[in-house]
Design a protein that fits this description.
233 residues, three-stranded antiparallel β-sheet, mainly alpha, single chain, globular
Length: 233
């Protein structure tokens, strides 16, 4: 019963391995596991009330997604990002997501995409400035997922997600502050307006600007997080 309760609390669905993978992924995203922290299979097995096998498979999957670093005979640790790594990740995201924005603008008038993006735009305004970091993170992810869907290239989405999830978005959103969030919201406005107008070149350009600004903000916040943890230590 303990296993069912813990997995149910995460809201995860799917097979047992998928549920554990989702639970561990969320724990990393929320900063419950710190950068460099080793994940002990035996401890996780006890925590989830399952055998070692599903835990090992979940760790393998998360290493493949970029959440964890895995070293044979030593195990898995939570992947850490310094300023250099963050900027490199954002360079890749810029290439992938700006192209996705262009494709989305070209496809926006198909089906109900325009209506759904308009509704997402409203959700961004409702939640990004609401003070709830989790809701803000969720609605931003919804926006990016929808943009990939409208772009219509699943391989683009698969590549992009690998460079989005490991960045502990919720924790960064908690520390971002209202000024940074307002700036980010305006940038989302620019991207969405360009996509809805079918202006692929502008949508691509606005996404590049957004991600470059986001990279700078993340690096500044990384310094603040490191300083905070140093002071606590």
């Amino acid at each position: 019963m303990a296993k069912e309760t813990k997995l149910r609390e995460t809201g995860a669905t799917g097979t047992l391995v998928e549920q554990i993978t989702a639970a561990l992924r969320e724990a990393v995203r929320h900063g419950e596991f710190k950068a460099g922290q080793r994940l002990i299979v035996a401890d996780l097995s006890e925590q989830f009330g399952v055998s070692f096998g599903p835990i090992r498979e979940a760790i393998r999957r998360l290493a493949g997604e970029g959440y964890l670093d895995f070293t044979p005979h030593k195990g898995a640790t939570v992947r850490g990002f310094g300023e250099k790594e963050l900027r490199e990740v954002f360079q890749v995201r810029e290439a992938i997501e700006s192209f996705a924005a262009r494709l989305a603008a070209e496809n926006i008038h198909h089906g109900d995409y325009a209506q759904r993006l308009t509704a997402c735009h409203k959700d961004l305004h409702d939640h990004m400035l609401g003070g709830d970091a989790q809701k803000s993170s969720d609605v931003r992810q919804l926006f990016h997922d929808l943009l990939y869907e409208v772009a219509g290239n699943p391989y683009l989405k698969e590549a992009g997600q690998r460079f989005t999830y490991p960045l502990h978005r919720v924790r960064f959103n908690e520390m971002a502050g209202r000024v940074r969030t307002e700036d980010s919201l305006r940038e989302h406005d620019d991207i969405i307006r360009a996509v809805l107008a079918g202006d692929g070149a502008r949508a691509e350009r606005m996404m590049r600007i957004h991600l470059r600004n986001r990279a700078t903000a993340f690096c500044e916040l990384l310094d603040e997080i490191n300083q905070t943890e140093s002071d606590v230590a």
